[in-house]
Write the structure tokens for this entry.
Amino acid sequence: MLKKVLIIILLLFVALYFMLRQYFGDVQINRYTNRDAVIQYKAIERGWIPAILPKSAYDISETHDIDTNEIFGSFYYHDIDETELLSKLKPIFDMNDTYGWGDFLFKVDREKNNIKYRNKIVEQNQDIKN
């Protein structure tokens, strides 16, 4: 009987922890109509959006988590910028339609002219060579 009560209390504390973490988490979601809005809000300078964002980019969104340093986002672009944009990206051969540039990974959908991106996460315990 005491064992069941302790398990229930433990489960309640775990549930409370996750609810509070979700409620008080440092996740921010931003949406921008075009590249000019991104520049105005300094999202590239802050590292939330990759600097190779094409001039024709529109319907731009980004989500960043200050606690984990994870960044996710997406944008659409016009055909006129596709060749130049893709020339800057390096294919990652073990992943379909995935490219790398700087600290970001990109998933390219050429049919929809849509790119989803995320940052590369560096493990905290990993040694970083300069």
